[in-house]
Amino acid sequence: MAILKIARMGHPVLRQAAAPVGDPRAPDIARLVADMIETMQDAPGVGLAAPQVHAPLRIVVFHVPAARAEPTHAPVPITVLINPVIVPMDEERDAAWEACLSVPGLTGLVQRYRRIRYTGLTPDNKTLDRVAEGFHARVVQHECDHLDGVLYPARVQDLRHFGFAEEIRRYPLTTSEGQPRPQEQEGEGRS
């Protein structure tokens, strides 16, 4: 296994749609997945998409640590999702602060679907089909955006809610602006 170099915002690999994986059981895919998991853990992050490590393939890895799991849901162990498809369960959305390993030092307030169903393949070519909500749903949506060449800053609706994480934590939005404070939302949310 190896720690891979993470592409940063501006690199062409992050602006293009990733290609589907033909054989999830191929040895080069297994090696890439193992390296992605090691890279995600080393960063540290909660998710990583293959394009972020210069591999334009439809693969994501993620987990939801206990500290970020919804109160009524268990943490999600490290999960590998190949050729994922996301379907929103309804129109309900939440705003929360996001960060990204490919956009270091920055954070932004992003609206995402609160509940989704996602499907995809595992490395042993079995179908994975889950319903996710809250932070779990947010992480999956964030990572799958990478597969379509979309970085979270493109989803920030008001650029007053985008900036250097350190500054936004130091000078948080007031509660009268009605937005969650980044120090309450960001935590371990880099992906």
UniProtKB/TrEMBL annotation:
InterPro entries: Peptide_deformylase, Peptide_deformylase_sf. Binds 1 Fe(2+) ion. Its EC number is 3.5.1.88. It is an enzyme of class 3 (hydrolase). It catalyses: N-terminal N-formyl-L-methionyl-[peptide] + H2O = N-terminal L-methionyl-[peptide] + formate. One of its GO terms (molecular function) is metal ion binding. Keywords: Hydrolase, Iron, Metal-binding, Protein biosynthesis. The active site is at 143. Fe cation binds at residues 100, 142, 146. GO terms for biological process: translation. Its cofactor is Fe(2+). Residues 171-191 are annotated as: Disordered. Removes the formyl group from the N-terminal Met of newly synthesized proteins. Requires at least a dipeptide for an efficient rate of reaction. N-terminal L-methionine is a prerequisite for activity but the enzyme has broad specificity at other positions. Belongs to the polypeptide deformylase family. This is Peptide deformylase. It comes from Candidatus Defluviicoccus seviourii.
